[in-house]
Write a structure and sequence with these properties.
The protein is an alpha+beta fold. The protein folds into two domains: 135 residues, no CATH class; 37 residues. The protein is 19% helix and 36% strand. The chain is built from three helices and seven strands. The protein has a five-stranded mixed β-sheet. Strands 1-7 form a two-stranded antiparallel sheet. The structure holds zinc ion (ZN) (2 copies). The site of one zinc ion has 7 residues, from loops.
């Protein structure tokens, strides 16, 4: 999710550049990926670049109940200022005093990489519970079948054996 912003950084503040995004992100250490689409408005500020992004993410996740993989859709509205590490005019490193460490930076190659911000926003806004649907039927504790997809007879069998035992006790003795 890289944007070349050298030209924008040389422009005066208030200049804008509209970009579109369509890419796939890896989410941390997990094997799951996230598709991200949308538009990104880059605006030159006094010191850096203001990013306003409207993105729709499709996050690959695994259901905690039935272990199935599913997609969680999530709309992201990102508003962040990015600060350039390098001063394009002087070629020197910028003194970014007073700017906290939590900020996002534009690398020395004048490339603004949005992927860290997208990951942060996703981890903040994605639902905490990983459930494929509200009423996931989970896996059968006896046979391990995914009860969303198939039925098994474990419960019935248990009922049947209980019922059988019950009927047995009522059987008239001869
Ligand atoms: Zn599930
Ligand atoms: Zn079962």
């Amino acid at each position: 999710m890289d944007f070349k912003v050298a030209t924008l950084l040389k422009a005066s503040s208030g200049n804008k550049k509209l970009e579109s995004v369509s890419s796939t992100l890896k989410m941390g250490r997990s094997e799951f990926k996230c598709d991200v689409d949308g538009s990104v408005l880059l605006t030159k500020t006094d010191v850096g670049v203001w990013v306003s992004a409207c993105l729709s993410a499709k996050i690959g996740r695994q259901c905690g109940s039935c272990l199935d993989q599913y997609i969680e859709p999530l709309d992201l509205a990102i508003e962040e200022e990015y600060f350039p590490l390098l001063n394009l005019v002087t070629g020197e490193r910028n003194e970014l005093e007073g700017i906290g460490e939590d900020n996002f930076y534009i690398g020395e190659d004048n490339v603004l990489d949005l992927s860290d911000a997208v990951r942060q926003y996703i981890s903040l806004h994605a639902s905490i519970n990983s459930k494929c649907k509200e009423y996931c039927k989970a896996l059968c504790v006896d046979c391990g079948i995914n009860l969303n997809k198939e039925k098994c007879n474990c419960r019935n069998n248990k009922k049947n054996t209980k019922l059988a035992a019950l009927l047995e006790s009522f059987r008239p003795t001869e």
